[in-house]
Amino acid sequence: MKRISFKGVAIGNVVDIASTNIIMIPVMIYVLASAGTGSLSDHDAGSATSLLRGSAVFLTASSILGGLCSVLGGYVSARIAGREQLLNGALASILCVGFGIYAVVKGTGHLWLNLLDLPLSPALGALGGYLRSRQTGRAD
Q1: What mean pLDDT is reported for the chain?
Q2: Does any domain span residue 65?
Q3: pLDDT value for 117
Q4: Residue 47: in which H helix or E strand, if any?
């Protein structure tokens, strides 16, 4: 268990989830504003959610930006850990995998995308750890 930095993994998970949510705010505003059905205050929560769920722009942007945030979370986790960068980077996606399993079980969102994200999240976190190991010159 000395290989895993719980502090690094916890902070990497928070960075992944928080950065994904923060970076998606402008995308959500853009999609809702470009709907052309009036001002944002005219939308109730249900119609805004269905509008975002049906938007190809939102789906594409959330997939790409969420993936980049997973790499960032893995990098942060590996940097804090200082050892076993690939392992700690991959473990920085535990929350993403948990949310993905929850979404598959509850049937929310796009099933194929949720199933794709289950193996992809740890792989992208490990990529962040790999980038950190390349930066330090140590491959663990």
Answers
A1: 87
A2: yes
A3: 87
A4: helix 45-53
Q: What percent of the chain has pLDDT over 70?
A: 89
For residue 31, tell me if it sits in a domain.
Answer: yes
Residue 123 lies in a domain: yes
Contact 125, 16 (CB under 8 A): yes
What is the rounded average pLDDT of the residues 60-87?
A: 93
Nearest-angstrom CA–CA distance, 28 and 74: 25
Q: What is the residue range of 91's domain?
A: 6-136
Q: Flag whether pLDDT at 78 surpasses 90.
A: yes
Residue 73 lies in a domain: yes
Assign 3-state DSSP to the chain and report helix, strand, coil percentages, each to 5: 80, 0, 20
Residue for token digits 């001002």?
A: 39
Convert the pLDDT of each residue in 36-55 to its tens digit: 655 555 556 667 777 887 78
CA distance 17 to 9: 12
Instruction: Identify the CA nearest to 31 among candidates 22, 20, 23, 40.
Output: 40
Q: For residue 126, what are the CA distances in angstroms to 69, 105, 115?
A: 12, 25, 18
- Structural domain total, the chain: 1
